[in-house]
Amino acid sequence: MIASSIFLAFGTWQIVLIVVVVLLLFGGKKIPELMKGLGSGIKEFKDASKDDDSSESKKKE
Question: What is the rounded CA–CA span in Å between residue 47 and residue 29?
Answer without folding.
Answer: 29
